[in-house]
Specification:
Number of helices: 10
Number of domains: 2
Number of strands: 14
Largest sheet: 10 strands, mixed
Bound molecules: S-adenosyl-L-homocysteine
Length: 346
């Protein structure tokens, strides 16, 4: 029987050095391999020409290099690019490049499918199949960085964890990926340019605060009234707003980092004055701002974007109460690349 070969990219540099020592080789070979894997994005041991043939064969016998593969790239009329990314076990996730005049933002996935059940989100229709590994998250970012350089002549500037999955349900791997993205041996990106978006898992938000992370936090709030929120995001039943609020207060105390609330206004669901008032009240617990995002219809008729007047009412009341609010227009709708539309349609 063949033992299952390990993914060499799951090893830290130190572990690679130890591996070489255990094989009677010089530890610094580990640094060389690490550099091939992470700086030069090597996809095979064969290309590692500063290692002898024997050493390469020895690596081949112990390890595989699991790389993602961008299977299909779609471009929207607004410049947005969506990648269908095939993983080593043939599962597929999606990531999106969103260009604006000044920035390029990568929107990356953290899970295959999603463990949550938000009624308005296409990804929720796929059940969660597995968590992504740190390198699978990292590779999505590298792929988009390359596309940004190729098509827009500039490097990637921002990353949002708003693709498929709930990042805080894949906590360790997401943090490892961020560590790689921000490290000298990775992309050297500032953590201030990275945002993790969560549907709001109180325990994990507190853990982020305890771990003193330096990236930004966004919470998909959508309603500050328990009954309404539970009807559209059923897991709110187990993580009610009072727990979320406590966790967010804790987050702010520890990090002093302002929270962004993502919020869609739907006709007949959360478009009344009482909904706005509840949101204003919720915003007072910790310094925050509100992003009103446009609803991207998924194939059924239960949810409809609210009327202009309702959105205007939100903006007016929030501003009157000193809360920063932006209205976000969707990007990449024509290729199903907008928020909540990622569902491996093709
Ligand atoms: N699980 C994480 C990240 C993925 S969702 C989270 O919940 O934050 C990214 C954002 O898209 C969330 O704010 C989510 O609420 C929003 N979203 C989901 N479906 C949507 C849809 N159909 N239209 C607009 N936004 C949607």
């Amino acid at each position: 029987m063949h033992p299952v070969k390990k993914d060499v990219r799951a090893l830290t540099k130190e572990q690679l050095r130890q591996f070489f020592e255990s094989q009677g080789e010089k530890a610094f070979r580990g640094n060389q391999v690490y550099e091939w894997l992470w700086i030069k994005s090597a996809h095979s041991f064969d290309v590692m020409t500063n290692l002898s043939k024997e050493v390469r064969a020895m690596l081949e016998a112990h390890f595989v290099i699991n790389h993602i593969k961008v299977d299909q790239m779609q471009r929207s009329s607004d410049g947005t690019i969506k990648n269908a990314v095939r993983l080593h076990d043939d599962l597929v996730v999606e990531s999106v490049l969103i260009p604006t005049s000044k920035r390029t933002t990568a929107c990356v996935s953290s899970q295959v499918g999603c463990s949550l059940d938000c009624k308005f989100c296409a990804t929720a229709r796929l059940k969660r199949m597995r968590n992504l590994n740190p390198d699978e998250i990292y590779d999505q970012v590298v792929a988009i960085d390359n596309e940004s350089r190729l098509y827009f002549d500039r490097p990637l500037s921002n990353i949002v964890f708003m693709g498929m999955g709930e990042p805080l349900m894949n906590y360790n791997n997401v943090l490892k990926a961020v560590a790689k993205i921000t490290s000298k041996e990775g992309l050297r990106m500032s953590p201030r340019r990275i945002t993790i978006s969560t549907s709001g898992v109180p325990k994990m938000i507190k853990k982020l605060a305890d771990d003193q992370v330096k990236f930004k936090l966004a919470v998909s709030l959508h309603s500050a009234i328990d009954e309404v929120r539970t009807s559209i995001m059923p897991f709110n039943e187990n993580f009610p707003l009072s727990d979320l609020r406590e966790a967010l207060e804790y987050w702010y105390q520890k990090t002093k980092s302002r929270i962004t609330y993502e919020y869609v206004v739907w006709k007949g669901i959360n478009d009344q004055l009482k909904d706005v008032k509840a949101l204003i009240n919720f915003c007072k617990f910790a310094p925050s701002k509100v992003n009103l995002i446009e609803y991207n219809p998924i194939d059924d008729g239960d949810f409809k974007q609210a009327d202009e007047e309702a959105i205007d009412m939100y903006v007016r009341f929030l501003e009157q109460n000193g809360i920063v609010v932006t209205v976000r227009r969707s990007r990449g709708k024509d290729i199903d690349a907008a928020c909540g539309q990622l569902a491996n349609k093709s």
